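ligand=manganese (II) ion
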Amino acid sequence: MPDDFERMWADLAPVGRSATSGGYNRSPFTAPETELRAWFVEQCRARGLRVEGDSYGNVVGWWDVGAGPAVLTGSHLDSVLDGGAYDGPLGVVSGLAALDLLRSRGVAPARPIGVSVFVEEEGSRFGLACLGSRLATGAVSWDQARELRDRDGVAFGDVVAGGASSSLLSSVGTFVELHVEQGRDLVDRGAAVGVASEIWPHGRYRFDFAGSANHAGTTRMEDRADPMLTYAFTALGANKQARLAGERATFGRVSVEPNGTNAVPSHVTAWLDARCATEESLAALVEGITTQATDRAGRDGTALVVTVESVSPAVAFDAALAARVAADHEGGDWPVIPTQAGHDAGILSAAGIPTAMLFVRNPTGVSHSPAEHAELPDCLVGVSALADTLERLTR
Ligand code: HGY
Ligand code: MN
Ligand code: MN
């Protein structure tokens, strides 16, 4: 079994890897991500799994054993821009390896088991995170999704067949996603694996700041309407508000027009990612940031328009399922911990599918970065934790 995991991990390692940063660029429907999904299909076929895809790019490999509602595991293969190796692929590779482990244990599951790959989990290309799982559960309609555009103006509707709704999840009774931890909770607890209790509500908001383009040398400082200034103030203010409240506010993406060194810009567009423990505090944080920004725009002579791009409500995972997954292991129960990161598991849970998540310890807690990491022994503990979980749920 360790060999299987390591062999699969070695297959994926070069795909989409940047020679300069060591990070990964696996945006959906680019060559690296397409290669990864083709690799996944090949791995399913090699195991005799029935491969089922939908018209959005989601894929499941089914082990058609037993009867009744299926237990699905899996994650995603796309990455953020210059992301890490583990966020997503660890759950897919661990799903395949867990299935191998169950077979090597001679387990005969009483229910079908599937391993899934959901497309565009990060929203790195079309802007909406968990796009594949939102489409597969009907949380987003095809009419909404088809119009989402990437930075070059290519529409989602132009890269997938789309159309009819997906029946990929119609037989799924339970979903379990294994994921690298994206913080240091498990490090602090000295545990190799943990189980998720909840996902913080979070959202994406576009801030369009408009000013007046002008000469960088001849325009007196007091005569400017500089949207960069309003943006800079807004980013600082957002950071302060979130920091004081123990919340999260990040401007990680900015575009500037016309982006010239010797001109006051005419427009700045920046995207806020905000996350809080409750939906009320999320709404209050975004309102606070918007109020400060609008106020500042008034003083700068600029104009601000804020557009809510997406809001993902709080997810409370099925507590009884989490307890069942976490209980009675060699060395004690696994810790049950919250996360501030979004996941396809949150979308399936919100769609009414009883869902659990396993986290694998990440020694630095760094994620969405080339420095994201998990040690091989912990990954193997994760595989056997997932196999144990699948075995429990398909008994
Ligand atoms: O952005 C997120 O929370 C996630 O990693 N998709
Ligand atoms: Mn991610
Ligand atoms: Mn992920």
